[in-house]
Amino acid sequence: MNINIITLFPEIFVALNSGLLGQAIERKDITINLLDLRDCSMNKHGQVDDKPYGGGEGMVLMAEPLEQSIKNISETKRGHVINLSPQGEKLSQSKAQELSKLDNLTIIAGRYEGIDERIINQYVDEEISIGDFVLSGGEFAALALIDACARFIPGVIGNQKSVDLDSFSSGLLKGPVFTRPEKFNNESVPDVLLSGNHARIQEWREDQSLLRTMERRPELLNEIKLTKKQIKLLED
Ligand SMILES: C[S@@+](CC[C@H](N)C(=O)[O-])C[C@H]1O[C@@H](n2cnc3c(N)ncnc32)[C@H](O)[C@@H]1O
């Protein structure tokens, strides 16, 4: 997957070089093409933002530098163009999986009051939000989006099965997990996990996943078809 990122702060993306994502970039499973918006300024002062028409607070990223930056990416490498915005469709696990199948993605990370609306109308395929809150810039949203997508790219996560078992993949949250020691501050690991009985462990995990979803995110249960056994467990 090739990801182009248009940003005023390319240095923030050094965070991509760590962990599994960093390894994927090193292997070239993912390539990151950072485009500094300032390079496309239309004047010698490096200006890329201006006051909003009609007055009001803040500054707006200008259309011309953004257009130039987008045009600097060859059409074959540009792919699907996303503008990050708190007003976009909320990012979900299924959206991340869908985007991970694309060969080319261009992400616009806004700043200030956002980007001139005409860029959205003329160049953007989709607007994505990472949640109902406002960040000062799209860079952190871009990092979250890229990380969520990368987990679905074959080879990025060593054990692909762990992605299939993650929260939201089956529509439920994942249940609790434990590691050594068996006893920590008087709290023991549930006996069943030490039993060696794989069928019982699997059943316990499925039950915990269901109960945790009911406790923490009950609205998710409306989105999936529950079995009779699951309905009985929830009723109990
Ligand atoms: C301060 S915000 C602009 C918010 C805008 N004035 C509004 O009220 O909708 C600046 C930039 O941060 C990014 N941003 C802020 N919150 C975001 C979110 N929840 N999801 C994705 N991007 C976000 C966007 O790129 C946005 O252009």
Can you put this structure into words, describing what you see?
There is one protein chain. Helix content is 35%, strand content 17%. The protein has a 5-stranded parallel β-sheet. A two-stranded antiparallel sheet has the order 3-4. Strands 8-9 form a two-stranded antiparallel ribbon. The protein is an alpha/beta fold. Helix 2 (63-71) runs parallel beside helix 5 and helix 4 packs across helix 6 (138-150). The termini are far apart. Residues 84-87, 109-111, 113-114, 129-131, 133-138, 141 line the site of S-adenosylmethionine. Residues 84-87, 109-111, 113-114, 129-131, 133-138, 141 line the site of S-adenosylmethionine (SAM).
Strand content: 15-25%
* End-to-end Cα distance: 46 Å
Listing every helix as H and every strand as E from the N terminus to the C terminus, the arrangement reads EHEEEHHEHEHEHHEEHH
| Helical stretch tally | 9
Structural class, judged by helices and strands? alpha/beta
Question: Which spans have pLDDT < 50 for at least 5 consecutive residues?
Answer: none
Question: What Rg, in angstroms, do the CA atoms define?
Answer: 22 Å
Strand count, sense and closure of the main sheet? 5 strands, parallel
Average pLDDT number:
97
Can you tell me the overall shape?
A: elongated
Which strand order spans the largest sheet, edge to edge or round the barrel?
Answer: 2-1-6-5-7
DSSP E strands, number: 9
Heteromolecules bound: S-adenosylmethionine
Task: Provide the fold topology.
Layout: E1 2-7, H1 19-27, E2 31-36, E3 49-50, E4 60-61, H2 63-71, H3 75-78, E5 80-90, H4 93-100, E6 104-108, H5 117-123, E7 126-129, H6 138-150, H7 160-164, E8 183-184, E9 187-188, H8 198-216, H9 228-235
Helix pairs in contact: 2-5, 4-6
This protein binds S-adenosylmethionine (SAM).
